[in-house]
From TrEMBL:
Protein name (database record): COI1 F-box domain-containing protein
Top-level taxon: Eukaryota
Domain COI1 F-box: 15-52
Pfam (any one): F-box_5
Biological processes annotated in GO: auxin polar transport; cutin-based cuticle development; negative regulation of seed germination; positive regulation of leaf senescence; positive regulation of response to water deprivation; protein ubiquitination; regulation of meristem structural organization; response to light stimulus
Matches recorded under InterPro entries: COI1_F-box, Leu-rich_rpt_Cys-con_subtyp, LRR_dom_sf
A cellular-component GO term for this protein: nucleus
Length: 712
């Protein structure tokens, strides 16, 4: 390039610096930025000057202070939560903590958004004063709460960072009673907050009613509130009408409100055979819900995942359309009667015509007709999720897909008794060429047999007949009209739309077999089940699939030892697949109580990882099987060996620990750049001495990793 410039030709170097700088500023991919910084000294300066976000890795505490980079002075978003060893306190007796804090401030003077692993309050006491202009902070902690006064984790940030607007505690373990007094002690900072994320994943019990009252009273200007709470009326302080009404009256400017019971945050899929109604009803009346909707006119996003029955919710949900006209995202858990779909008149949630994303979990009485009504009414629907709805079948899914063919790009189907893999995929056929993200359950055995495609067509004409009753509203118009003529016109339009999309997909028999735009596939699979039937179930041709997430769940003791591998190598059929999340963290074997022969989870690790070397993966997130009682997730010898054979890996994140000796196997992967061990589950073990979480072994491994020559 320099040669060409000398020769007089016009090159990119003739661009004024300001323009070049804007161009570089718009590059978001970190590797592309790193490459740009290597071009020449000028590009280096421009790239560094426009780098606003940085995640620091490596071991800062252990006499590596000189390694803190000082060339990223424009960084505003700094993430210190992934320093190694993972979860280690920044405050170490072997180094001078004050010096570390000053060095960090000096290196990153512009920081306004900070993510930090705060194992003890001392970390924040040290860091918060360094960046008084912080507007956003995310705290991370999976270790147990240190014995300290209530609220002492939050006191330093609320005291020193008076410009804060956003606090994220979703990955931070604390007690719910820590927060209200801390907010009350710093009323000015609390009152200025606009976003609080309290959807804390590690809670056993969520926020209580009186705590929600206190928090919302202290933070009247909140626009976004996400809160993990307790809806179960059997608990003292459960969230009921009082809290629901208070949220709206204390924080009338909310645009985003998520209220989810902690039970919904645990990973389990649930049992599709369950009756559908929980044993208890929630202590929330439809009157209180109406009050909530009326009080929050700016609402754009609403999650109410209650885990206890909210019955006859349809009439109340209808109000959302008029009271919250900006609502785009809605998720409801355990709401029954949300769309009755009696006759052709739209009702209930189907009247929320602005919705772009809708998620329905555990609605016991939702039927195919309800689904069709939703598809007609919510004409902008781009994302749809259905979980634990027994009555829905592939016919409902299929008609919905036909109706919303032009808008739907994301679909999740899980834990529905009548929607195993084959029927779910059959239902999605009408949008097979459009969908970008998909979740299904890998349930093979119950597969309803489809004799041939004629049955599908028959089923559709059944649905169409149902729909072709008088006064069918078009999905993109309001439901009220008076003129006969208009009815006829609309009816015609509606049915032709349907016929047209029908024709295109099924009618003429040229149904696209290809999932042309599918980029991300998420799967749930029971322990011991095999993966290869996936292709036969309908997902054989996915030319763009880049990422796959597999969640394995179940108790190994109930399964005999596997005789053939899980079948990861069957994913070789997806040519672009480069990222995988393989989560066996909910595969349990109860090492201490299981019958002999079933205790060894490494057998299962070998079963799952076998064949992984055949995939050309770039990034892998792996959760080893664990025993909850033993609270120990650790890589076994066979799995370290199998992972070491993935020669294309560049990033490897193990959500657990590993012995240093096993880690050295990974050095055989030629392009491996980033290896992280994260104990991101509660409670992370306190005693890390036997594992790679030790400072010394971690440093040795990282040194060895960095000594290698990486080609790029
Ligand atoms: C996986 O790769 C190995 C060689 O590394 C090869 O022997 C084996 O046949 C491959 N498996 C499949 C299913 O292609």
């Amino acid at each position: 390039m320099a040669g060409a410039a000398a020769g007089g030709a016009t090159t990119i170097h003739d661009l004024p610096d300001a323009i070049l700088s804007s161009i570089l500023a718009s590059v978001t991919d970190t590797r592309a930025r790193n490459a740009a910084a290597l071009v020449c000294r000028k590009w280096l300066v421009l790239e560094r000057g426009t780098r606003t976000s940085l995640t620091l890795r490596g071991n800062v505490v252990h006499n590596n202070l000189y390694m803190i980079p000082t060339c990223f002075r424009a960084v505003t978003h700094l993430d210190l939560s992934l320093l190694s060893p993972w979860g280690h306190s920044l405050i170490s007796p072997s180094s001078d903590p004050m010096l570390l804090a000053h060095l960090l401030r000096h290196a990153f003077p512009m920081v306004t958004s900070l993510t930090v692993y705060a194992r003890t309050p001392a970390t924040l006491q040290l860091l918060a004063p360094q960046w008084p202009n912080l507007t956003h902070i995310k705290l991370v902690k999976w270790h147990q709460r240190s014995p300290s006064a209530l609220g002492s984790d939050f006191d330093p940030i609320l005291r020193h960072c008076t410009s804060l607007t956003s606090v994220d505690l979703s990955n931070f373990y604390y007690w719910t009673e820590d927060l209200p007094p801390a907010l009350q002690a710093h009323p000015a900072t609390a009152a200025a907050l606009t976003r609080l994320d309290l959807m804390t994943l590690s809670f056993a019990e969520g926020f209580k009613s009186h705590e929600i009252l206190a928090i919302t009273a202290a933070c009247p200007n909140l626009q976004q509130l996400l809160i993990a709470c307790t809806f179960d009326p059997r608990y003292i302080g459960f969230v009921g009408d009082e809290a629901i009404v208070a949220i709206a009256s204390n924080c009338p400017g909310l645009t985003v409100l998520h209220l989810a019971d902690t039970a919904s945050l645990s990973n389990g899929r649930g049992d599709p055979e369950e009756e559908g109604f929980s044993s208890e009803d929630a202590g929330i009346s439809t009157t209180a819900l109406s009050g909530l909707f009326s009080g929050l006119p700016l609402l754009q996003e609403l999650v109410l995942d209650v885990c206890k029955n909210v019955r006859d919710s349809g009439a109340t949900l209808e109000m959302l359309n008029s009271r919250c006209p900006k609502l785009r995202v809605l998720k409801l858990g355990h709401f029954h009667g949300l769309c009755l779909a009696i006759g052709s008149q739209l009702d209930g949630v189907a009247l929320c015509q602005g919705l772009e994303s809708l998620s329905i979990k555990n609605s016991a009485d939702l039927t195919d007709m309800g689904l069709i009504a939703i598809a007609r009414g919510c004409s902008k629907l781009a994302k749809f999720e259905i979980h634990g709805c027994k009555k829905v079948t592939w016919k409902g899914i299929s008609t919905m897909a036909c109706l919303r063919r032009s808008t739907l790009v994301e679909f999740k189907i899980s834990c529905c008794k009548n929607l195993d893999a084959v029927s779910a995929l059959r239902g999605l056929e009408p949008i097979r060429d459009r969908i970008q993200r998909l979740h299904i359950d890998c349930i093979w055995d119950r597969s309803e047999q489809f004799e041939d495609s004629e049955e599908a067509i028959l089923a559709h004409s059944f649905d169409l007949n149902e729909l072709e009753q008088p006064s069918i509203p078009s999905q993109d118009d309001d439901r009220f009209w008076d003129h006969e003529a208009s009815i006829k016109k609309k009816k015609r339009k509606y049915t032709t739309d349907l016929d047209a999309s029908y024709e295109q997909n099924n009618g003429n028999g040229i149904c696209s077999k290809t999932w042309e735009r599918l980029r991300c596939l998420s799967l749930w699979i029971g322990v011991g089940e095999l993966l290869p039937p996936l292709a036969k179930a309908g997902l054989d041709d996915c030319p763009c699939l880049e990422e796959i997430q597999i969640k394995v769940e179940g108790d190994c003791r109930e399964r005999s030892k596997p005789s053939q591998p899980f079948g990861l190598s069957s994913l070789m059929r997806y040519p672009r697949l480069s990222k995988m999340k393989l989560d066996c963290g909910d595969t349990i074997g109860y090492a201490l109580t299981a019958p002999s022969g079933q205790t060894d989870l490494s057998t299962w690790e070998r079963f799952y990882l076998n064949g992984i070397k055949n995939l050309t993966l770039n990034e892998l997130d792996y959760w080893p099987p664990q025993d909850k009682d033993v609270n120990h997730r650790s890589l076994s010898l066979p799995s370290a060996g199998l992972l070491a054979e993935c020669v294309t890996l560049r990033k490897l994140f193990i959500h657990g620990t590993a012995h240093e000796h096993f880690m050295t196997f990974l050095l055989a992967i030629p392009n491996l750049r980033d290896v992280q061990l994260r104990e991101d589950y509660y409670p992370a073990p306190e005693n890390d001495m036997s594992t790679e979480m030790r400072i010394d072994s971690c440093s040795r491994f990282e040194d060895a990793l960095n000594r290698r020559r990486i080609l790029d």
